Amino acid sequence: MTSSPIAVVLPGTGSDDVFVTSVFRRPLAAVGVRLVAPAPMPGPTLADAYLAALSRAAAGGPILVGGISLGAHVATEWALRNPHDCAGLLLALPAWHGRPDGHPAAFAARHSAHVVRTRGIEHALSDTAAAVSPWLATELARAWRRYGPWLAGALEHAATRDAPTTAALRGVRVPAGIAACVDDPIHPAKVAEAWSRALPTAGLISTTLRALAADRESLGRATVLAWLRAGGRP
User: Fold this and answer.
1) Which CATH number does the domain 6-98+164-229 belong to among 3.30.450.20, 3.20.20.120, 3.40.50.300, 3.40.50.1820?
2) SS3 annotation, 84-148
């Protein structure tokens, strides 16, 4: 019996495998792909731990890789380093390309890290809950408490880590599905559009944070459908 293909999908900054699973498990299963969602290993080597997890997963053959926000950046970085091990990309809400300077997601991560370091996680969660939708506040409360004392370091690491440049993205040779939320100020749709233009074989589908609030799988469906439209095959 042939085993199902797998997709290894990484969480975003301060997020976790629980959220990734809620977004991607069923949309991937609908096309015959099994999700692997690595748990974050928080701290200043967060991205390196994700890269190592992808390489371990690819030991048995090429895999789909992807992520949300920072996870999308790291997955694409791995794909560029390991072109023969990557069968496709699932990229939800990329936050920037190249340097993070001036991008809203990097600013938000740095600010949150400062509040965590100076006033603690619970105070940071209280501040955040006042500024975001209730569903997102709930997601962050779970994930940030899981990060514990390593949260600030993980946020700082994410806020200073380069994403692939648009020039680098032109070297990706696998189908890439990209999803953007048009009402997301932290992950502007124009960034996803720039990724879509740079990647040689990419599909882009837009959804909304409002849809995500009601149905976590809406983001996963958009990403998987964009990948299929780009020519992806399970």
Assistant:
1) 3.40.50.1820
2) HHEEEEEEECCCCCCCCCCCHHHHHHHHHHHHHHHHCHHHHHHHHHCCCCHHHHHHHHHHHHHHH
Q: Distances from the Cα of 91 to the Cαs of 43, 74, 137, in angstroms?
A: 23, 10, 23
Q: What is the pLDDT of residues 106-158, one digit of tens each?
A: 999 999 999 999 999 999 999 999 999 999 999 999 999 999 999 999 999 99
User: For residue 22, what are the contacts with CB-CB under 8 A and spacing of at least 6?
Assistant: 216, 217
Helices 121-129 and 104-119: crossing angle in degrees, nearest 10, is 140
| C-alpha to C-alpha distance for 122 and 127, rounded to whole angstroms | 9
Counting Cβ atoms within 10 Å, is residue 168 exposed (0-12), middle (13-18) or buried (19+)? middle
Please report, for the chain, the start and end positions of each structural domain, with discontinuous segments joined by +: 6-98+164-229, 104-157
For 25-73, how does the pLDDT look when each residue is reduced to its tens digit (9 = 90+)? 999 999 999 999 999 988 788 999 999 999 999 999 999 999 999 999 9
Cβ proximity of 8 and 63 under 8 Å? yes
For residues 218 and 211, the answer to whether their CB atoms sit within 8 Å is: yes
Question: Do 187 and 105 form a contact (C-beta atoms < 8 A)?
Answer: yes
Closest CA to 155 of 145, 144, 146, 165: 144
Q: The whole model's pTM is what?
A: 0.96
The torsion angle over the Cα atoms of residues 105, 111, 112 and 115, rounded to 10 degrees, is 180
